[in-house]
Structure prediction request, 112 residues.
Amino acid sequence: MSLTQLSAIASLDEHGPMTPGGLAAKERVQPPSMTRVIASLADLGLVARAPHPTDGRQIIVSLTDSGQALLADETSAREKWMTSQLAGLDEEQLAVLRKSVDIISGLVTNSE
Prediction:
């Protein structure tokens, strides 16, 4: 599973079903690139494609149960890894990390 595929699945989980163009815009990639990602995810059974209800030229991409399960497994594994890594830090390192998170969060908030 590539980071691009995982990110697309996470976007569908967070924002719900959408068109390939909408997903491409959320992921900040070109539509042809997202079309390839969607095709690979559909081949894996992680997303489903359905006709758009009002625009016959479009499709709607949604996350399947398998896609949701994969995302939950990936998230759990990443959280376990991070918890393990944080447990090895001392209080000073944790304080620096907290300050860093605050700074980065401020940068992200100001750029939106």
Remarks:
- Helices lie at 3-15, 20-27, 31-43, 65-87, 91-111.
- Strands lie at 47-51, 59-63.
- Residues 3-67 form a domain with the Arc Repressor Mutant, subunit A fold (CATH 1.10.10.10).
